[in-house]
Write the structure tokens for this entry.
Amino acid sequence: MTAPAVSISGLDADALGGDDSILMRQRRDHPRLDAMMNRYLSEDLPPGEPDAVWSDIVQLVFSHAFAEETVLWPLLRRIAPDGEELTRRVEEEHQAINELIARIEHSPGDPRRAEWIRQAFTLIRQDIRDEEDELLPRLRTAFGDRRLRRVGAAWEAVRATAPSRPHPGVPRRPPGNAIRGVPLSAFDRLRDLAPVGGPATRRAALTAAGALAAAGTVTLAVRATRRSG
């Protein structure tokens, strides 16, 4: 196995390829997610805010992970001798998070919900450590700043149209994740943003348009990343 490179957790923007590089985009999401988890666990939130914070956590976790699985991990498997082993382990972490959060979402009144949420936060923090310490440094070693910015743009485009809810049945790798997951992203985002009681025809039109736009975005982003390899 290749010796791990230096963790990106302590490096500044210049060392990580600039503010728009994939490494800095990841670094911005990770502390934001950590802060939201800490806020959720605090004891002084006003009524109703824990649900809003939880929703924000779920949306960020799943859009972020889907973009990683679509853009980053296939790239890592191509350029790192131990990329298959590393990405398989992180994909297993993502699957465990998916299954646990799906259980939480489907069991709002279960007395075990608070413990499940703590378990989910532990898994998410472990996933962040693995990515910053072992996976993402391989991209810093392999690519120059310009390439890291191109990968960052592709990752951001996919994240903007990715599923934002848990879907344990969606495969963790392309093309299966896009085939199964992209149509679900439209439903997820309608659930996140659109009023449930709106006209059925309008919801159907938004869903179809969202699915088509998301599919096109994912396809173009992945192709652009592969061409620059």
Summary: The radius of gyration is 18 Å. Residues 49-79 form the longest helix (31 residues). The chain is about 75% helix and 0% strand. The mean pLDDT is 87.
